[in-house]
Amino acid sequence: MNRGDRITLDLTEMSPRGACIGRIGDQLVFADYGIPGEKVMVEIIRAKGRYPVGKVVEVINPSPHRVSPPCPYFGRCGGCQWQHIDYKYQLELKRQMVEDRLKHIGNFVSPPVSTTLPSPDIWHYRNHARFTVDRQGSLGFVRRDNWKFMSIDFCHIMHPWINESLGKLQGRCPGAHQVAMRYGVKTGKSLIQPNVDSFDAPVESGQPFYYEELLGKEFRISSPSFFQVNTLQAERLVEAIKERLDFQGDEFLVDAYAGVGTLAILLSPFVSKVLAIEESSSAIKDALVNNAGIENIEIKEGKAEQVLPTLTQQPAAVILDPPRTGCHRKVLEALIKLDPKKIIYVSCDTTTLSRDLELLCRAQYHLQEVLPVDMFPHTRHIECVAHLIRRSDMSPSEGGAREVVLASTSPRRKELFSTLGIPFKSVDPLVEEDSPASGTSPEAWAEHLALSKARAVEGTISPSIVVAADTLVLLDDHVLGKPKDAAMAREMLLRLRGKEHIVITGLALLDTLTGRYHSRHVVTKVTMRHYSDEEIERYIASGAPLDKAGAYGVQDELLKPVARLEDCYTNVVGFPLCALKDMLADMGVEVTARPDEALLSNCLDCPLLR
Q1: Fewest CB within a 10 Å sphere: which of 340, 508, 562, 598?
Q2: Does residue 470 carry a catalytic annotation?
Q3: Given 32, 470, 511, 567, which residue is catalytic?
Q4: Contact between residue 400 and residue 392 where contact means Cβ atoms under 8 Å apart
């Protein structure tokens, strides 16, 4: 595709970047200003990169959720991506996007995502604007399609005071690079930076800080300090956090990215002590002013990844509200060691949120809920409040103690699994193994089949850790499955005789309580010996080949088909125990038993023997 090309697309889903996805064959195309379910004409605006990007220029079959955007700049300035979608459906799309990221980045099969919390105001809600200034002194934004400057006179999502100030400054700021405006919706206080007095501007400017009020408490916010852009929705976010933490009054609370002290101060009346951690010097100065007279808050300047590992007192709860990049790995590691009962993770980036939640839930936490909070109507951006609780505090009925379920009735897999010394029960997944999709690698397909088996039993059992596996035999890039009859078994054994092939086992572990899963694969090279035709016939007559991929079992004494193998022997049997042990540990299942050394001695360098 080339820039300027026009193509017809059926749009299927919304991408994390706020554009719809369409496909031409196997090629994905991102289409700005579309809605899932529509047929549209798209003009390509960027053809470089892995996926072409276009914009909708004609709607052939419109969605019932399509509305007329009120802003004359919509589709050009790029600040809003969704003014063409009715607000109720925007909320559902954001819920779906959070769910999608948790599934694909965090490996949660059934993430507990609540209905999106709507904004009290969907227009004129922004209390903060940053305008680009051109050489003539005009204020505006950079266009989304060509990155050129576009002057504007009015923004439908900005507070009326900001639009009024924009009108007063329009064309009066030559020489300025940017102009930032911030307004206190509850206080009427304001800030404009930089100082534009030299431009003969009819507004006050150059203020180092302004004041805003949340839930009856006034906060000073300096120009470089962070503060939520939607005041009324920020109040609802604080209330949502307070409700989920359910304080009893004696807790030690840590606010790890405290900013100007908003959450620490507003929650301090409900706990015994708060430690507020912040690295920004301007935010620290604001927090000290805002905290005046509150005795149960300690403010510590420093990076969260440096301060948290030094704590000696175990907090009852920790609040995380990091930048878009998410939490530093050392923050999460320190949290796991501190072992608080509850964690609230506030995030405006669903990708880094999903990544960090997976690590915490891989340790000792259960993801209780993710609440999408619409802080930014008519845009793709989403604020989320994730609520985690310690699994050890959960009752058995809540899934605090979960049994291990093997999604297989194979005697070989049950025997191998039993060597790990973990109590388990066996369930037949009853999965029909279909053919792989075009372009799917055998490794990916093995993992897919294993995960399909785990999901097949998910809804039929109590909260459990489900373990599933699927083994493929690959000869000359052709997958040899289980033979349907003796003739197929004979054909497979003849093709394999004296040749090298690979055995791929896909593994999948699924936590049915949290919905989190892990999958991986293990590959072993196998060289078959030159067994005779008579040996093949005796082997087939025993019936042993008919339930095995590739029509053989490496452990079968009747044929002893393998001359040599590289790497994991138990992988060829059907369960790579070394990989399985690591995956179980990631799910919080400790393996203490040492498998039989005679079994593992078939591996040249088995880590379980070290």
Answers
A1: 598
A2: yes
A3: 470
A4: yes
